[in-house]
Amino acid sequence: MEALEVMKQHRTYREFDETYQLTEEELQTILQASRQAPSWMNGQMYSIIVIKDRTIREQLVALNPRNPHMLHSSVFLIFVADLKRTQKVAEHYEAEYPIAEGLDPLITAVTDTALALENAVIATEALGLGSVVVGSIRKNLSEIGELLNLPDYVFPIAGLSIGKPTVEMRVKPRLPEQAVVHYDTYQDYDYSLIEEYNATMEKFAEARETKRWSKKFADYFGSTPNKQVDEFLKKNKFFQF
Length: 241
Fold this sequence. Notes:
Elements: H1 2-8, H2 24-35, E1 46-51, H3 54-63, H4 69-72, E2 75-82, H5 84-92, H6 104-126, E3 130-134, H7 141-147, E4 154-163, H8 192-204, H9 213-221, H10 227-235
Antiparallel strand pairs: 1-2, 2-4, 3-4
Pfam family, one: Nitroreductase
GO molecular function, one term: oxidoreductase activity
Organism: Enterococcus dongliensis
């Protein structure tokens, strides 16, 4: 029941006590929980980069100034999809490694990485701490790849700032169940459910939101996708087309 309550009470924090230091025991508890996440065939196709060095964190904020918590939180983790480990295995067995011929290996690694990330979020909150997932690290992939010395077959998915929150946040409402949960087959639903959610979010009135929920994503997906992702994946041998 405690774990269920933690998940139901999830919220994102962006303001942290800069004087609070995560203990090594707390950090290891979070990392162990993260590493225990389910993965395809127990492949564990991810790695976790623990960023403690202040200089590196300052450089990350310089690349992504809208997320100063990457510096001010107690620790910043970067979760990467990692197919380098299986490439080493292939080399050991002198086997082919044609992962660039299809997207399934990448999807598998991204899924494993996301599951590990979510376990870290839950463990963080179970310890009475807060976190914020940072997907925008994918906007500066080339620079981050060099900064972190990432080899081929390794792709940054998201960061995670962890610390002691200084500003209380409310639990954010989610989409209506009928728009998300389907039984047996995918079921179409009326657009009014999205309008209902727009109204819910307007009442929630989160200060950082300047657009209606639906308009935000209409604008986002109406723009050209982040081409840095494609270029980075090709450069790092994830796919060739």
